[in-house]
């Protein structure tokens, strides 16, 4: 559906909903008599009155202005312990995001009556928030749900919304003035924003699988990802969802904001189609850089090998953050700490998510010292082993590996069919909740890797065999000199003595002109067994994970260096945790057998001397 037809359809649906509501619901008293119980009257609604309200909670709605003077009105759903007096003061846990519309998170969910979003009912119920005496607040970002305004992709407008939501939550008569934030994916990003705002009222942030720099979700060093237009289009679709028939008139009017402001949707596509990372637009959305000097206690999770919100600029964010930190980092995909698979296995592999989260909140929102001493960071490596450490990364040594000089043809490598598939993928909906679960090396990519230096599209450098078990951690960084313009891809492979190799890290860049270029790969935590080699592949972008335009140039690469941070496993402190189920899926999708493995030309060891 094109933009004009979509807005018209939303407007028509909204008009019908208003007509239906005016006759079927009318006043709150009529709504109660009809069995459709909402929170629009201002009276708290319990689970017994409306099954969409979590058991033990009382639901109300509220509206307040954003903090930027724009006139944007924000909508909130508030869940309070039903057994507490109206003004009994509690700590507040806040989520701010695009997924809290009454009709559904990313699309209509078939509810038969209005009610608060079930997005984090797993948290409300699993952590016993109401029984513990917490208030849970869900705020719609501008343009979504019951809030007005235009979408702003974590820009100054949305940052103003987060500020307003924290201020409002802290200032209510039922609040003890201490706010924590909770989220996963987009509403984890708003938690990072909250930390960056340096607000006294914000006492703790739990952010699962966030994006650390918004540019990286759509581009990699000026090379567009396949979702560069699909993601903005997906959020346009979420923003344009109609209200429910029994929503209040105020909610309906706000939910239909895009129908009278179609420029909100078109501008969201245009604004996010800018590849210049250093533009003012993207500088305002670089959360990692803006975390400098922040100190809000922070609890994060990150899958090193997930295909959705990747670990890019994570290390920079954590290095810039100066407050207490906790983290679960490992080999999983885009999941929550409590998620399980079809067999009941925890997706992250580690038990106790809600217990640990609530010890974190109790400490910083109530001042209660926990009876259990949780590790600062727990990390699962690619062998499925869990360890605890005081910070991440923990580095034994750092050094630059000198790479070979070589050349490659920037021809795109991948077949025409794969390129067409990448283009088609962008035509679908790709928001942070509905991105591809697994990125798979194609047959063409595996064949090119097997050819080694015999392939025109890439060349290789090999490390010496690891003399002992060691770990590459942190964020590898490549620096090289390119002879002319084009595209470059760098991939890291863990190569066993029998040639079995797993691609575990990669990134790409546009080379605008010949000369020196440097860029980070993804953050990683990958343990090499004794006798394994590191293979570094440099060449054209032969992957449908990006939408590049091959230059056709033969590019000579010289003076290449790979900056590595290496950790010794000798001091690992084991902690509880099972092998995350996703790890085996990733290995199957990204492992092949290489031939023509060359002699090692740089060390893979814990220091330059041993």
Automatic annotation (TrEMBL):
Residues 1-24 form the signal peptide. InterPro entries: AB_hydrolase_fold (IPR029058), CocE/Ser_esterase (IPR005674), Galactose-bd-like_sf (IPR008979), Xaa-Pro-like_dom (IPR000383), Xaa-Pro_dipept_C (IPR013736). It comes from the Bacteria. GO terms for molecular function: hydrolase activity. Keywords: Hydrolase, Signal. NCBIfam families: CocE_NonD (TIGR00976). This is CocE/NonD family hydrolase. The lineage of its organism: Bacteria, Bacillati, Actinomycetota, Actinomycetes, Micromonosporales.
